[in-house]
Design goal:
Blueprint lengths: L3 H43 L3 H4 L6 H30 L7 H18 E2 L2 E2 L4 H22 L1
Antiparallel strand pairs: 1-2
């Protein structure tokens, strides 16, 4: 039986991640509207059709929004799995999950300037590396608990 304080803290972290995920969706929608408005303005100035100035597959704003959501979804399964296994098996170091929440918020803030069609900019690693470190830390803890 998991200690109630550990369970509450783990639940707070999980609920916070839900908020971050919804914020990531909000960023994606905002960036798509921003890209479309920019393309519409460029089309109007140049006398072209919107379809000639708007390309959802090469626009950096759309790419940043899509990758922010995609990256979150790609890594949340790994994080939540080892996070909850750690909470259930050890009941310790649950607070480290807040570092992952913070790294996801940081990623959300950096994505618009850090993701480009040509690749990511190095400053985005400031958000991704701590999150990966948390996941690997929890993998280690879970492995140690079951061996």
């Amino acid at each position: 039986v998991m200690d109630k304080a550990v369970l509450r803290e783990a639940a707070r972290i999980t609920l916070s991640l839900t908020g971050v995920y919804l914020s990531t969706i909000g960023l994606q929608v905002y960036l798509k509207f921003k890209a479309r408005a920019s393309a519409a303005s460029a089309a109007k100035k140049s006398g072209q059709k919107l379809s000639e100035t708007y390309n959802r597959y090469t626009d950096n704003n759309i790419l940043a929004g899509d990758r922010a959501v995609g990256n979150f979804l790609e890594w949340q399964v790994a994080f939540l799995t080892v996070f909850w296994l750690n909470a259930a098996l050890t009941g310790e170091q649950v607070w480290v999950g807040w570092i992952w929440v913070a790294s996801r918020l940081f990623y959300l803030a950096l994505a618009p300037s850090g993701i480009r069609a040509a690749g990511i900019k190095p400053h985005l690693l400031g958000a991704t590396v701590p999150g990966y470190a948390v996941i690997f830390y929890y993998i280690y803890r879970v492995f140690a608990a079951v061996m």
